[in-house]
Amino acid sequence: MKIHQYDVVIVGAGGAGMRAAIEAGQRTRTAVLTKLYPTRSHTGAAQGGMCAALANVEEDNWEWHTFDTIKGGDYLVDQDAAEVMAKEAIDAVLDLEKMGLPFNRTPEGKIDQRRFGGHTRDHGKAPVRRACYAADRTGHMILQTLYQNCVKHGVEFYNEFYVLDLILTEVDGRRRVAGVVAYELATGELHIFQSKSVVFATGGVGKVFKTTSNAHTLTGDGMAVAYRRGIPLEDMEFFQFHPTGLAGLGILLSEAARGEGGILRNADGERFMERYAPTIKDLAPRDIVARSMANEVREGRGAGPNKDYVLLDLTHLEPEHIDAKLPDITEFARTYLGVEPYTEPVPVFPTAHYAMGGIPTNVDSEVLADNDTVIPGLFAAGEVACVSVHGSNRLGTNSLLDINVFGKRAGKAAAAYAAGADYVELPEAPETEIAATLESLRTSDGSENIAAIRKDLQDIMDANVQVFRTEQTLREALDVIATLRERYANVGIHDRGKRFNLDLLEAVELGFLLELAEVITVSALHRKESRGGHFREDYEKRDDENFMHHTMAYLDPESEAEGVRGVRLDTKPVVVTRYQPMERKY
Amino acid sequence: MTTEIAEPASKVELPSHLSGDAGEIPSFECTIRIARFVPEQDEEPHWEDYQVTMYGTDRVLDALHKIKWEIDGSLSFRRSCAHGICGSDAMRINGRNRLACKTLLKDLDTSKPITVEPIKGLPVEKDLIVDMEPFFQSYREIMPFLITTGNEPTRERLQSQEDRARFDDTTKCILCAACTSSCPVFWTDGQYFGPAAIVNAHRFIFDSRDEGGDLRLEILNDKEGVWRCRTTFNCSEACPRGIEVTKAIAEVKQALFTRAF
Ligand SMILES: Cc1cc2nc3c(=O)[nH]c(=O)nc-3n(C[C@H](O)[C@H](O)[C@H](O)COP(=O)(O)OP(=O)(O)OC[C@H]3O[C@@H](n4cnc5c(N)ncnc54)[C@H](O)[C@@H]3O)c2cc1C
Ligand code: SF4
Ligand code: FES
User: Fold this and answer.
1) Residue A297 belongs to what domain range?
2) Closest ligand, as measured to the CA of B84
3) What pLDDT sits at residue B224?
4) Structural domain spans, chain B
5) In the UniProt record, does the keyword Kinase occur (chain B) (predicted)?
6) Which pLDDT belongs to residue B21?
7) Is residue B174 within 6 Å of ligand 2 at its C-beta?
8) Which helix (H) or strand (E) holds B29?
9) Can you spell out the DSSP letters for A512-551?
C-alpha cells in the first residue's frame, strides 16, 4: 500500500479540476488524481461557448445575466450563487484569455460574443450577445488552455488513477476530510492519498441514460462516492435533455441547428412544432422541443425502421449557409450516420445532456453535510456539484462558466484551508472496504454480465425517467432498478488480471450508476410538480407553494423514502435575494 | 452575414426508408482481427479473430465494445467521448492510424478480417493500450503555453482576426498521437519530438500574443527536432482533425531559417 501526502488533492482533471489545480498548485503542494488523461476529459466536447457580460459588442451587465440564469433555472436557482457567478464571469473569461485561450475576435481585436438561447438584455427584452467562443470548439480550447497552464506551473498529475473512496474521520464530534483511496489502472494497486483538502471535480452522470451526449466515462463517480459516505445529493431529479442528439448515438448537434433555420419533421414529413408552439415553433425552449419530439415518437409518428426518432431538416437551407454556420453538424451527420444534410434530413432524438444536481456546496465550493453544515476540508466544483446556479434547468454556456468560476474558488479555498489546518489522522487501513469490494468483483464467478445490466438500466431510464415522467413510470423504473441491483450482486467479470483491468472498473462504475439512478428516480417521485428539466405528466404545473425547495437525498439504511428503503429525503430552502418567482415564459 | 430563409413547407414527402416502411436496419458479419497482448501471460503479441454481427453505421469502436461486452471482457483499449474529440482511441486499423470511434465499418472492406493493432513506436502495455508518457513528455518539452513578458493588461490582449486565423489549424489538436505514431522517423528514433509536439509548438510560435517563439525554435533546432522530418506526409494523412501537419512542420522549419536568434 502506497501512502502519499499532499496539502490539496483534486479529483478530476476536466475544466473544474484543472482550474482549481492552477490556483491550488501555485499556493501549496497539490496533486490531481484523474481517471482519464487530463485532455481526454469531456469538457473538451463542449462547442457553443462560455458566457460573460463583457459588453464587447453591445450593452450588457452582470445583473441581466444573473436574472437570465435565475429565470432559466425556473426560480430554483440560489440567487446569491447566481450573482457570484455572473459577476465573476468577466474575470473568468479574461483569465482564460490571459492564459492563452484563442477566442474569436471582433474587428477591433476584442473577444467576440454571440447569442445563445435564454440570454437577454434588460430582463428579457431582446436577445443579447453574451457567449464568448472559439469557433465551434470552445470546450476543447478551454480544456487545452487549462492543461497547458498546468504544465506551465508544474502541476503534479496522477493519470489513470480512479478515486473510489473518500476518507472522512470524526474529530471532536465533527466529520473532517482525511484523504481519498485511489486505484491505479496500470498496476491494479490501491493508493492512499492523505490530504488536508480534497476537491471533487469528477463531472456528470449522463451514462445512467442510453441516449446521452456524455462520454462513456461519465458515470457519476464523485457523486456516488460522496453519497456512500453519507453526504447528501441535491436536486438529482433535474436532468437536462437536449433536443437534438444524433438518433441512436446521442452525439450532440448544437442548438445552432435550430437557430440557423433547421426545422423538425416527423415520419409523415410534417413540421410538427407548428402544432406544439404555433408562434415560435422550432425555436421553443429546449425542454418544450424535447417533449414534443418524444411525443411524436410515442404517438407512432417517429421516423426510421423502428419509428424511434424524428428528423432535423436543413435541406431548405443553402449549402454555403450550412457550411458557414453549422460545420459540426454536417461533419457528425456525415461521419456517423452517413447522412448528407444538404439533401437529406438528419435523424435526431432528445439526448441526456447535463446533471443540474449533485454534491451540495456553498459559494466557496465547500461541501455541505446537510442544509448548512460544512465538512471541513471537502470541496466540490463543476458538474459534480450543485451550488446551485442552474436550478432546475441550465442555460446554454453557463456550465463552462460554472466550472471556471467555481473551479477557481474551490482551488483557492482548498489551499487556504490547507494552510491553516493539520492532517487528520487516517483510520486504521482505510482501504479495507474498497479493497474487499474490488477483490470480490475481480474473483467473482457470478453469472450476470455487466453490459447486460447496464443496458437494461439505460433502457428503463430512457423509457421511464426521461422527458416524460409519471408516478407510474417512476415506480416501474424503481422496481426495475431494484431487480438490477440484485442481479448486480451476482455479476461476474472476465478479466482476472491486475494490469489495466478496465473490465473490473466498468463493474465498479456500473455500481455507481445503479445507485445514482435510484436517487434520481426517488427524487423525481418526490417532486410532484413540473419545473425546468423535470416534467411530470401527472402534475403539469409548477407548484411554488409546495415545491419551491431543493431536494436533498441521503443514503440512510434506517430510512425509507417514496417506498424505497435506504434513502432519506429532505428539503432545503432556495436562496432568494431580489427576484421573486414569476412564470417562465419566453 | 444575414441570409433570408424561405419559410419551409409544413409538410413534405419523405423517402420510404425515413417514413418507416422500409423494414430493418441492414446487418453484416465481420471478422475483427486484434493484436492481443496481456503482459501477465504473453511474451509476444498474437492475433486473435472475433466474429461479430454489426449494423448500419456501426464503427470500429462499436465492434470492440461488442467483443468486450459480449465475448471477452479482458480485451483492453482506451476510449471516452466516442465522437472524435477526446483523442483516447487512436489505433492501427487495417495498417492505418485512425480513431476507432470515427471509423465506420462499412467504409472498410468487411469481406476480409479487419486488423486492429496498437499505435506503433510507443511501448505496448496491454492489448491496444500503449504507454503515452513519452508522447506527452515531448509535448511538455516544447513549452506548450503562452509566454509573455511585462505587466498583465487589465482587459484582454487585443488580437486581429487575421492574427487569430494564422494559427487556427493547429489549435484543433486533440493529442491523440495518430500522427507521431505513424511517422517512420519516430518508429526508428523514439527521441524525435514527433509531429504532434511540433504542431503544438506551431500553435504558439504563430500566435501574435506569444513571446516565447525563439525559445521553442531553439528547442526544435535540436538534432531530435524538426530537421529529422523527412516529409513523408504520413502524419497529415493520419490526423483525424484534418490538421495540415506537414505544412505546420514546414512553417516551423521556415521560421528557423528566417528568424535570427
Ligand atoms: C457535447 C456537450 C456540449 C456541451 N456544450 C456546452 C457549451 O457549449 N457551453 C457550456 O457552458 N456547457 C456545455 N456543456 C456542458 C459542459 O461541457 C460540462 O458540464 C462541463 O465541461 C463539465 O466539466 P467538469 O470539469 O465538471 O467535468 P469533466 O470535464 O467531465 O471532467 C471530469 C473529470 O473527472 C475525472 N474523473 C471522473 N471520475 C473520476 C474518478 N473516479 N477518479 C478520478 N477522476 C475521475 C475525469 O478523468 C475527468 O478528468 C456541454 C456538454 C456536452 C456533453
Ligand atoms: S496533430 Fe492530429 S494526429 Fe497529431 S496528435 Fe494532434 S490531432 Fe492527433
Ligand atoms: S473515444 Fe474520444 S476520440 Fe475516440
Assistant:
1) 242-349
2) 3
3) 85
4) 27-130, 133-148+161-260
5) no
6) 57
7) yes
8) strand B27-36
9) HHHHHHHHHHHHHHH--S-BTTB-BTTB-S--HHHH-EEE
The answer, for A416 touching chain B at a CB cutoff of 8 Å, is no
Pocket test for ligand 1, best of A104, A161, A239, A399 (most atoms within 8 A of CB): A399
**β pairing state of A174-184 and A239-246:** unpaired
Whether residue A215 and residue B81 make contact (CB cut-off 8 A), yes or no, is: yes
Q: Which of A319, A349, A379 represents a domain boundary (last residue)?
A: A349
Rounded to whole angstroms, the Cα distance separating A342 from A57 reads 32
Q: Return the pLDDT at B20.
A: 60
Q: Which residues of B touch A249 (CB under 8 A)?
A: 82-83
Annotated ligand binding at A215? The verdict is no
Q: Are A538 and A479 in contact (CB under 8 A)?
A: no
Query: In terms of Cα–Cα distance, which of A397, A382, A389 is closest to A131?
Result: A397
Chain-chain contact of A103 with B87 (C-beta, under 8 angstroms): no
Closest CA of chain B from A238, distance in Å: 23
Mean pLDDT over B44-52 rounds to: 97
Nearest Cβ partner of B126 from A98, A317, A500?
A: A500
Q: Span B252-259, mean pLDDT?
A: 90
B88/A contact by beta carbon, under 8 A: yes
Cα–Cα separations (whole angstroms), residue A443 to A29, A446, A503: 37, 9, 12
Q: Are residues A440 and A339 in the same domain?
A: no
Cell 471482457 found at: B73
- Strands B124-126 and A366-368, how do they pair? unpaired
Q: Say whether A105 and B164 touch across the interface (CB within 8 A).
A: yes
Contacts of A498 (CB under 8 A, 6+ apart): A187, A188, A189, B40
Of A303, A321, A493, nearest to B20 by CB-CB distance is A303
DSSP A27: H
pLDDT at B23: 62
C-beta of residue B98 within 8 angstroms of C-beta of residue B54: no
Q: What's phi and psi for A195, nearest 5 deg?
A: -155, 155
Q: What is the pLDDT of residue B40?
A: 86
Q: Does residue A286 carry a catalytic annotation?
A: yes
Check whether domain B27-130 has CATH 3.10.20.30, yes or no: yes
Q: Collect the ranges in chain A with pLDDT lower than 70.
A: 586
- From the candidates A18, A93, A96, A144, which should be mutated to test the interface with B, based on the most B CB atoms within 10 A? A144
Amino acid A586: pLDDT: 65
Last residue of a domain, one of A333, A349, A365: A349
Phi, psi (degrees; rounded to nearest 5) at A258: -85, -35
A293-303 pLDDT tens trace = 999 999 999 99
A344/A342 Cα distance (integer angstroms): 6
Render pLDDT for A75-113 as a digit per residue (tens, 0 to 9). Answer: 999 999 999 999 999 999 999 999 999 999 999 999 999
Q: What pLDDT score was predicted for residue B3?
A: 45
Instruction: For residue A12, list chain B residues with Cβ-Cβ distance below 8 A.
Output: none
In A, residues 43-82, which contact B (CB 8 Å cutoff)? 44-45
- Confirm or deny that A115 is annotated as ligand binding: no
Decide if A459 is inside a domain.
yes
Query: Across the beta sheet with A113-121, what order do the strands follow?
Result: A50-51, A126-132, A113-121
Q: What is the pLDDT of residue B5?
A: 57
Q: Is residue A107 part of a domain?
A: no
Q: In whole numbers, what is the pLDDT of chain B averaged over residues?
A: 93
Fold exhibited by the domain B133-148+161-260: Fumarate Reductase Iron-sulfur Protein; Chain B, domain 2 (1.10.1060)
Q: Residue A467's domain is classified under what CATH number?
A: 1.20.58.100
B74-132 tens-digit pLDDT:
999 999 999 999 999 999 999 999 999 999 999 999 999 999 999 999 999 999 999 99
Give whole-number Cα distances, A113 to A77, A79, A110, in Å. Answer: 25, 25, 9
ipTM: 0.95
**Residue A251: CATH number of its domain:** 3.90.700.10
- pLDDT score for A261: 87
